[in-house]
């Protein structure tokens, strides 16, 4: 089975290799102004320079810290509120209308509000990421809890489980696939949002680096930033997918 | 285990239901879908609100919440917790108790795995079990808490016929061994008459009749019970001769019918129309309860056909699925062979109680 899996993995890499080769070929042979589309080799070269002088890592670290703080805080708050709304009908009925109105507002829509509230500083991107993570995790958690088969809850209760035990031993574990879906999607989204926030309002981070490169017409640096963004989104989503499979995969 | 008594129990489905399940009795609630059978179980388990009174022995349990009523409940889909292995499922109720001790829980789970013959399944998740295995795990889980009463809501519905029959026998065996007061819901008269000490026939939120399987089949109390049990063929028998292997041959009118024999004189024999085999060609095999007759009437229904066949001057009702009747092309006046299937014969002997 293992050789087959290796072949399958290599086969999935093939389109990426073909894409990069075509890019290299087209940019080297047919594109006159390579400042607008540098070949892949030039982007790689710039990547190693930015890594060597520490600029890329410094900006990445700024973005990473903001994403982690905002995402963890937003997810925890969403998880807690989602559990309460999924578990207690009264809380669901009281808060659902308010959250239904706030949920459709895109995370970046809060940017001007937070700029006025918090000013330009570290709190601003963290607050935007918080909003980006809070609502989807809340709704996925609430839906996960509310869609647990009622027969399982009845079975648990006849077996002697109190309301709190039903929540801890039945509802929460069975809502995990939904919760993980929310976390996975929003972990990627957090990176997309932080880039936008940094491009508009913050002087440090991958978004800010990307904005400066655009001003200097350094397409190679722009592409390096986009590649880093892509890798971070992919890694975060994969991490939660791995966790989900590890925890819920057997059932 | 205690008896279960319901007095004037009503809710949005049930209408003034009163009856008692005796200590250690296996009672079957029989009725069509929507008759209120599952609602009744849910009320006894304390899962839905109701008016009236439910007692376990002489103790009212109306003010006791579900988790403290201590009932073993098997729902239709068995409701095994998908995220727990078999051992954890069985031990769940024990872990919910305030006096839980790990070693005691493990011992009890081991004993139940052994008793249900599923020791090898302990480390599997429910998704890796067959229907029959799931059924055993669910039963073991319900038994683990030493329930005061056992409530089973069509637990064999999802199984194939053979597995259902096997597990039905096992459930009955286990119930007798533990003397558990049991209320079992089904819509199948065959299933009910096979396992019940007594049957309660339900319709439209009411209990229509409570009685032994013989009483329900041979003397239905009212027209709705008669409609439900579906006009069985009933043969009045005069004399019986004992054969080997627990069988007897009885003279019923001008027919000689071989049936199970339990040591007391046979008074009546009944068989449902769907258990009468009919064919235009002579069936192969032993000639047990095989007769020849003439089709006198054919009635067509959306999914089945009912034939009235005259055998030795006596009408016998047979019921076939439409598909089978088309293959045989029965016509009124044609000669047919019929077999009264031995395993479906219901015998009323002198030991039975009458209204």
Keywords:
heterodimer; A: 251 residues; mainly alpha; MetI-like fold; B: 355 residues; alpha+beta; Rossmann fold; OB fold (Dihydrolipoamide Acetyltransferase, E2P); 2 domains; six-stranded mixed beta sheet; five-stranded antiparallel beta sheet; elongated
Structural write-up:
The complex is a heterodimer of chains A (251) and B (355). Chain A has 251 residues and is mostly helical. Chain A has a single domain (58-248), classed as MetI-like (MetI-like fold). Helices cover 83% and strands 0% of the residues of chain A. Chain A has 10 helices and no strands. The longest helix of chain A is centred in the C-terminal third of the chain and has 39 residues, at 163-201. Chain A is flat, with a radius of gyration of 22 Å. The mean pLDDT of chain A is 92. Chain B is an alpha+beta fold. Helices cover 27% and strands 33% of the residues of chain B. In chain B, strands 6-7-8-3-9-10 form a 6-stranded mixed beta sheet, sandwiched between helices. Chain B has a 5-stranded antiparallel beta sheet with strand order 16-20-17-18-19. Chain B has a 4-stranded antiparallel beta sheet with strand order 2-1-4-5, with no helix packed on it. In chain B, β12 (239-242) and β13 form a beta hairpin. In chain B, α4 (102-115) packs across α5 (131-144). In chain B, 40% of the residues are buried. The interface between A and B is medium-sized, with 20 and 28 residues.
Task: Kindly state the number of beta strands of chain B.
Answer: 21
Uncertain residue segments of chain B: 351-355
The spatial strand order of the largest sheet of chain B comes to 6-7-8-3-9-10
The CATH homologous superfamily of the largest domain in chain B is termed P-loop containing nucleotide triphosphate hydrolases
What structural class should be given to the helix and strand makeup of chain B? Answer: alpha+beta
Spatial extent as radius of gyration of chain B: 23 Å
What is the beta-strand fraction of chain B? 25-35%
The SSE order of chain A reads HHHHHHHHHH
């Amino acid at each position: 089975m293992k050789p087959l899996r290796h072949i399958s993995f290599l086969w999935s890499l093939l389109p990426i290799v073909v894409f990069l080769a075509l890019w290299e070929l087209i940019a080297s042979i047919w594109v006159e102004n390579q400042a607008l589309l540098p070949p892949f080799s030039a982007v790689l070269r710039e990547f190693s320079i930015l890594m060597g002088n520490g600029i890329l890592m410094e900006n990445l670290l700024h973005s990473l810290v903001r994403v982690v703080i905002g995402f963890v805080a937003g997810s925890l708050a969403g998880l807690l509120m989602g559990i309460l709304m999924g578990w207690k009908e009264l809380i669901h009925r009281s808060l659902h209308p308010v959250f239904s109105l706030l949920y459709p507002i895109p995370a970046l829509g809060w940017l001007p509000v937070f700029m006025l509230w918090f000013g330009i500083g570290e709190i601003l991107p963290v607050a935007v990421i918080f909003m980006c993570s809070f609502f989807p995790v809340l709704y996925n958690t609430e839906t996960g809890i509310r869609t647990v088969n009622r027969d399982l809850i009845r079975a648990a209760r006849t077996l002697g489980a109190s309301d709190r035990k039903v929540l801890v031993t039945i509802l929460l574990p069975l809502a995990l696939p939904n919760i993980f879906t929310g976390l996975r999607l929003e972990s990627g989204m957090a990176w997309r949002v932080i880039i936008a926030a940094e491009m508009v309002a913050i002087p440090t981070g991958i978004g800010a680096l990307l904005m400066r490169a655009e001003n200097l017409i350094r397409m190679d640096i722009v592409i390096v930033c986009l590649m880093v963004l892509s890798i971070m989104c992919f890694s975060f989503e994969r991490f939660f997918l791995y966790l989900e499979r590890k925890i819920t995969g057997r059932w | 285990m205690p008896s279960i008594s319901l007095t004037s129990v009503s809710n949005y489905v049930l209408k003034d239901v009163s009856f008692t399940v005796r200590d250690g009795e296996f009672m079957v609630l029989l009725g069509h879908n929507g008759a209120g059978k599952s609602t009744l179980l849910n009320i006894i388990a304390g899962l839905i609100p109701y008016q009236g009174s439910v007692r376990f022995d002489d103790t009212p349990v109306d003010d006791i919440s579900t988790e403290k009523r201590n009932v073993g409940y098997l729902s239709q889909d068995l409701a095994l917790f998908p995220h727990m292995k078999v051992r954890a499922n069985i031990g769940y109720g024990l872990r919910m108790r305030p006096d839980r001790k790990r070693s005691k829980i493990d011992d009890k789970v081991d004993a139940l795995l052994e008793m249900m013959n599923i020791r090898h399944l302990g480390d599997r998740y429910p998704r890796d079990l067959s229907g029959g295995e799931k059924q055993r795990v669910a039963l073991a889980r319900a038994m683990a808490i030493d329930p005061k009463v056992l409530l089973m809501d069509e637990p064999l519905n999802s199984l194939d016929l053979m597995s259902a029959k096997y597990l039905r026998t096992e459930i009955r065996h286990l119930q007798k061994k533990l003397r558990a007061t049991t209320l079992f819901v089904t819509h199948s008269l065959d299933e009910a008459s096979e396992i019940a000490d007594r049957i309660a026939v339900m319709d439209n939120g009411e209990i229509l009749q409570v009685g032994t399987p013989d009483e329900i089949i041979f003397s239905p109390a009212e027209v709705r019970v008669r409609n439900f049990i579906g006009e069985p063929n009933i043969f009045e028998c005069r004399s019986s001769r004992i054969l080997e292997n627990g069988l007897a041959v009885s003279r019923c009118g001008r027919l000689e019918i071989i049936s199970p024999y339990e040591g007391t004189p046979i008074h009546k024999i009944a068989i449902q129309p769907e258990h009468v085999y009919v064919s235009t060609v002579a069936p192969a095999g032993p000639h047990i309860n095989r007769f020849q007759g003439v089709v006198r009437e054919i009635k067509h229904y959306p999914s089945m056909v009912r034939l009235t066949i005259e055998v030795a001057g006596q009408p016998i009702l047979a019921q076939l699925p439409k598909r089978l009747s088309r293959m045989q092309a029965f016509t009124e006046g044609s000669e047919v062979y019929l077999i009264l299937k031995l395993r479906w014969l219901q015998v009323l002997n002198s030991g039975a109680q009458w209204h």
